[in-house]
């Protein structure tokens, strides 16, 4: 399906507006025409602006290529590729001003996301499977020196340099371990490789033994911020060590402590994990929830009194935010519902999305949602670094998860809100010149200003690209709007063209606006407080799900390894919340042998009674694929 913009004549001249120097930049767009004799082609950007691009004798080109693939040259195919109108590409080149004030743009190199209009390598059936396998293997090697050494989380370190080497720190953060565990569990779900399940199970066990506190008097669980390891000595850190959350227990840390174990629970059904999840949720309900008519969840509690209104919390006293309200769903709650199908979990999800839909829109004042609130839901526009600023990815994350929830409990307000976000965000938060999505911008544009000002920089973070890709993939998959498909393809094409680290493995943290990797400070790391193999693997799992099952209409194999007696004997295998009736189980294997005790429409497998774990492999297919 071709969802590219309609062609129109190309503007041959770009007026320099006083620019009297050369500069280099990237242009992303679609080919409109090609003059082979003049070695020039026309290029139309996503928002309809046109450029004339000149080739030089040294212009070279490549196709997008996946992790652990060989470089794929396209220089020899330039004439053929540029002759294909509506072919998408990225071109990096130099603007040269002439005495008449005209900028001539000459191409240095070109990246083709696919071999023809409407064709994208990231839509190949196994693209994301191969990518998640490579990323997971990189983290096994970096953290544990696997396969030369066994997987041992005593050796885990939060900080990893660009090539995966460890910094001399001994801090083990709970959330970063949990996020890595999520990555290993997701990699197992797509590949069935035992080393990934081992990484997930050992990481979950390490979290339980070292980072978990079970308060038997209160019958609830909370999780330490992390531990400092010095030889055989462990120092547990209950409250956060970070400036914005210092000396408090932020809810997002408790939420993300569940991300990895919950994804592992989907695979194994380990009742000890379920115990931890249930008792952590008790903490949420007892101490973080605003049980008054105002509703929602507070962002922080005092580490001694567990009071969200304690004066000691200072700027976090009585506050609510996106993380405390919305992050339940993508971090663990949707995955928990997928594993259990329990009404209580569906009700919690509905409460979460109803709260977001009621309080987060602020379209009379900004194209971005409001993210921070006081206790009464009045807007907090003076908090810390955020002030009255927008995190672009949070807006996209809301739309993505609203559409997931809509398939569980359809509500017109969910679709209306998701559509609003999806339709206003490209102009407000994306780079329609170069491709990709920005980080943090001012929520309100300056008077007479066309663009929302960047807060710190115009760089693009890997996780914000993920939110854009998943947002527009599921929007198109559910609503069948080709404009959403175009945005999904452009976002995924940018990510796969520029974020994959073909030299050292996994993905870069940030790129510059022009797509080149930004490799300074904390942003050069492969492991940090922010990055630990979570968003990159989540993107692989769910892109494979949405592209294969909703868009390309290809089957997807999934892997599980339930313990004896897990899930009451019934394994739920849906990869995500998708429209009812859109997918079915078309085949099942247990320990590599055909098995037919499954309900194709309900997406459940009746497990055999055994005294050991069994390997369950299911083929999930789109209904139209079977027709």
From TrEMBL:
The keyword Kinase does not apply. InterPro entries: 6-hairpin_glycosidase_sf (IPR008928), 6hp_glycosidase-like_sf (IPR012341), AGE/CE (IPR010819), Ssp411 (IPR024705). Gene3D superfamilies: 1.50.10.10. Pfam families: GlcNAc_2-epim (PF07221). Its EC number is 5.1.3.8. The keyword Iron does not apply. It comes from the Bacteria. Keywords: Isomerase. GO terms for biological process: carbohydrate metabolic process. One of its GO terms (molecular function) is N-acylglucosamine 2-epimerase activity. It is an enzyme of class 5 (isomerase). Belongs to the N-acylglucosamine 2-epimerase family. This is Slr1855 protein. It comes from Pararhodospirillum photometricum DSM 122. The lineage of its organism: Bacteria, Pseudomonadati, Pseudomonadota, Alphaproteobacteria, Rhodospirillales.
């Amino acid at each position: 399906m071709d969802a590219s913009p309609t062609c129109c004549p190309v503007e041959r001249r770009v007026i320099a507006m006083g620019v009297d120097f050369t500069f280099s930049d990237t242009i992303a767009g679609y080919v409109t025409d090609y003059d082979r004799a003049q070695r020039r082609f026309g290029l139309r950007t996503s928002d309809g602006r046109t450029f004339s691009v000149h080739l030089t004798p040294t212009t070279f080109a490549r196709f997008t290529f996946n992790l652990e693939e060989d470089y794929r040259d396209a220089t020899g195919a330039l004439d053929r590729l540029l002759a294909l109108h509506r072919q998408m590409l990225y071109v990096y080149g130099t603007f040269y001003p002439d005495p008449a004030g005209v900028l001539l743009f000459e191409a240095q190199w070109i990246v083709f996301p696919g071999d023809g209009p409407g064709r994208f390598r990231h839509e190949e059936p196994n693209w994301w499977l191969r990518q998640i396998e490579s990323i997971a293997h990189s983290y096994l090697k970096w953290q544990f020196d696997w396969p030369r050494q066994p997987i041992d989380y005593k050796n885990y370190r939060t900080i990893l340099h660009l090539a995966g080497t460890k910094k001399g720190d001994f801090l083990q953060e709970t959330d970063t371990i949990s996020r890595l565990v999520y990555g290993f569990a997701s990699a197992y779900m797509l590949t069935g490789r035992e080393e990934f399940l081992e990484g997930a199970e050992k990481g979950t066990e390490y979290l339980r033994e070292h980072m978990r506190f079970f308060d038997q008097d209160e019958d609830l669980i909370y999780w330490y911020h992390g531990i400092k390891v010095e030889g055989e000595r462990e120092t547990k850190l209950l409250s956060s060590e970070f400036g914005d959350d210092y000396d408090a227990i932020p809810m997002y840390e408790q939420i993300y402590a569940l991300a990895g174990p919950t994804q592992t629970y989907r695979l194994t059904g380990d009742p000890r994990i379920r115990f931890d999840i249930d008792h952590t949720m008790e903490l949420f309900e007892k101490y973080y929830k605003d049980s008054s008519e105002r509703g929602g969840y507070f962002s922080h509690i005092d580490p001694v009194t567990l009071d969200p209104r304690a004066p000691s919390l200072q700027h976090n006293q009585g506050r609510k935010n996106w993380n405390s309200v919305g992050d339940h769903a993508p971090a663990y709650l949707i995955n928990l519902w997928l594993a259990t199908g329990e009404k209580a979990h569906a009700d919690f999800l509905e409460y979460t999305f109803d709260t977001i839909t009621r309080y987060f829109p602020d379209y009379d004042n900004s194209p971005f949602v409001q993210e921070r609130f006081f206790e009464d839901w009045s807007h907090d526009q003076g908090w810390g670094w955020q002030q009255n600023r927008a995190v672009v990815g949070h807006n996209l994350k809301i739309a993505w998860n609203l559409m997931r929830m809509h398939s569980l409990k359809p509500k017109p307000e969910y679709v209306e809100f998701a559509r609003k976000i999806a339709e206003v965000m490209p102009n407000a938060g994306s780079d329609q010149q170069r491709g990709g999505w920005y980080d943090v911008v001012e929520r309100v544009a300056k008077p007479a200003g066309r663009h929302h000002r960047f807060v710190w920089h115009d760089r693009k973070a890997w996780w914000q690209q993920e939110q854009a890709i998943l947002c527009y993939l599921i929007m198109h998959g559910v609503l069948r709007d080709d404009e959403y498909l175009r945005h999904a393809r452009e976002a995924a094409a940018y990510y796969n063209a520029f974020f994959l680290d073909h030299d050292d493995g996994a993905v870069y943290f940030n790129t510059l606006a022009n797509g080149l990797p930004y490799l300074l400070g904390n942003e050069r790391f492969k492991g940090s407080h922010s990055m630990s193999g979570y968003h990159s693997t989540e993107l692989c799992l769910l892109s494979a799900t949405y592209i294969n099952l909703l868009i390309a209409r290809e089957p997807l194999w999934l892997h599980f390894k339930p313990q004896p007696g897990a899930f009451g004997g019934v394994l739920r295998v849906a990869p995500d919340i998708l429209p009812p009736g859109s997918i079915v189980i078309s085949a099942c294997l247990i320990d590599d042998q055909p098995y037919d005790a499954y309900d194709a429409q309900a997406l459940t497998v009746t497990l055999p009674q055994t005294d050991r774990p069994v390997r369950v492999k299911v083929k999930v297919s789109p209904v139209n694929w079977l027709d």
